[in-house]
Design goal:
Length: 535
């Protein structure tokens, strides 16, 4: 039996795990063990799915035996399986991190009875979105993850979290309603919501109707992906949540929106009809986002703005409609999920160890906690695109594709991407200089905890003070694991780029996807495939 036939378990396992975790509401240790075990099993399954489609090609699974386009179809291809593996890997790391925080704090900040089931539901929604073969099931995946995210964002019930949660809910509801209206209009125009079927039938619509549907879906997904000017909600929403929640939100939620944009742009609306507006949006997203980051003194808000900024790189790769550009974008998505999540996890450790996430109150952390300094430095340099890290390789791939495209707007984006990378380096270097390098006495409003002596590398104890907050080993270990995963993206950049290019070629060609869902006899509308060069 083809391993791809087990793809629905990537959604079912976290849901079953959430139910079991909820039943163990009074047994926190068992609840933690179940959550970690279920997510580990899900990750192993998704690694097997990735291996099966690496050379075996795209596969489709019809739920309940209902044939497309009437039934629910889940599609496993190289892009979706890569997203599944990366998302579950970082979700597992964050779950271990949250478990360590919960044990250290007595679960005061994130009640274990609520957190673990809700977290697994979030993972199920993300997996469902990545595997969905029709627009309505994609909508269901979004709603599952968004409903779970509403709960996670407001854990603790503090005023700032409730206010941020209200903004997040309102924006999410607006984008979801717009997405639902778009689905209704698509169904009214074509009689189907199956994406493989739509790839054939949308080509028969008149230009005006197709463009209207295209724009509506782009706006709905642009809000979810935080593409400028639809990104105003993100910097105020993410930083107020608990550290583990902020980390997983930063890594995953916007990338689900990016995934939906990539899938619909390549499968449903191929070509270059709206590439120019997409490129303009990508440039503005990069530049406005990083300028916002430079104005921040709080590390979490700074990282939230860099999150917005680097979405622009992904949109740039998508807008080029070439194998080289889209392949670089796929690589960059995998890189950014890992690096951005690890940086938010490190920020949680900084806040715990230094008493604040504001660089105005932080200083001397490099001496106080050398391990923490290392954990920040590596992903920060990776995010900035310093050679030889994966961030540098992904940006070089995008720049090469832009130069090969050769249009004035492409060159403008190449220049904008280079400037954004340099400004990202400036932003993280300022954090390093102020929070880690300078003396505590030089801080504007130093926290008393910064006057503690550095940790003993052998015993982990502190001399001279007994009220210093030690970093739980579980939190440090999970963060270290994710930082090493980010480094491994550099080590294995060659195979990952080959997979990304194969995924880009299949998405732009469309025949493998359409025929996997509808059968080998399904007609594939002709499309000129732009290779744009390889790597």
């Amino acid at each position: 039996m083809n391993i791809a036939s087990f793809a629905p378990l990537a959604v079912a396992l976290p849901i079953l795990g959430a139910a079991l975790a909820f039943l163990l509401i009074r047994h926190s240790r068992a609840q933690r063990a179940v959550s970690i075990a279920v997510l580990s099993l899900t990750l192993l399954l998704e690694c097997a799915l990735l291996a099966s489609v690496w050379d075996g090609g795209t596969a489709a699974v019809n739920i309940g035996g209902w044939l497309p386009p009437w039934g629910i179809t889940m599609v496993v291809d190289q892009f979706s399986s890569l997203m599944l593996v990366v998302s579950s890997a970082i979700s597992l790391a964050v779950l271990v991190y949250a478990t360590g925080q919960g044990m250290a704090d007595g679960d005061q900040d994130a009640p274990v009875s609520i957190f673990h089931p809700t977290y697994l539901i979030l993972v199920a929604g993300v997996s469902n979105a990545f595997l969905s073969g029709d627009l309505f099931n994609l909508y269901v995946g979004f709603e599952i993850l968004l409903t779970a995210s509403y709960v996670l964002m407001t854990l603790g019930g503090t005023g700032p979290r409730i206010r941020a949660g209200v903004t997040y809910v309102v924006v999410s509801v607006v984008s979801s309603v717009l997405f639902l209206i778009s689905i209704a209009m698509v169904y009214g125009a074509t009689g189907t919501v199956n994406m493989a079927d739509l790839a054939i039938k949308l080509a028969d619509l008149d230009e005006g109707t197709r463009t209207l549907l295209h724009v509506m879906l782009l706006v709905a997904f642009g809000i979810k992906a935080a593409v400028f000017p639809l990104s105003f909600w993100l910097p105020d929403s993410y930083p107020t949540a608990p550290a583990p929640v902020t980390a997983v939100f930063a890594g995953l939620l916007t990338k689900v929106g990016v995934y939906a944009m990539v899938r619909t742009e390549t499968l449903l609306f191929p070509g270059d009809r709206l590439n120019t507006p997409l490129m303009v949006a990508a440039l503005l997203t990069m530049v406005v986002g990083i300028l916002g980051a430079l104005a921040q003194s709080d590390i979490k808000r700074l990282l939230s703005f860099t999150l917005v900024s680097h979405i622009g790189y992904m949109v740039f790769g998508l807008a080029m409609s070439s194998v080289a550009g889209l392949g670089a974008a796929v690589f960059y998505v995998a890189h950014h999920i890992t690096i951005q999540t690890s940086l938010f996890m490190v920020t949680g450790l900084i806040e715990r160890r230094g008493g604040s996430s504001s660089v105005d109150r932080l200083a001397g952390l490099a001496k106080l906690s050398p391990m923490l300094a290392l954990l920040f430095f590596i992903p920060a340099m990776n995010l900035a695109g310093i050679p030889p890290f994966s961030g540098f390789l992904g940006k070089v791939g995008l720049i090469q594709a832009g130069v090969e495209l050769g249009t004035p707007l492409a060159y403008a984006l190449v220049i904008g991407g280079v400037i954004t990378s340099l400004l990202t380096l400036l932003a993280v270097a300022r954090v390093w200089n102020r929070a880690f390098w300078r003396k505590p006495s030089d801080a504007e409003h130093p926290d008393p905890v910064l006057l503690a002596e550095p940790e003993d590398s052998h015993t982990g104890s502190r001399a001279g003070r007994s009220n210093v907050t030690l970093l739980p080993r579980t939190m440090v270990g999970s963060t270290l694991g994710l930082v090493l995963l980010g480094v491994s993206l550099t080590v294995f950049a060659g195979p990952l780029f080959r997979l990304s290019d194969q995924a880009a070629h299949e998405m732009l060609d469309r025949s493998a996807y359409i025929q996997a869902v509808l059968g080998e006899d399904a007609p594939v509308p002709p499309l000129a495939l732009k290779t744009g060069g390889g790597k």
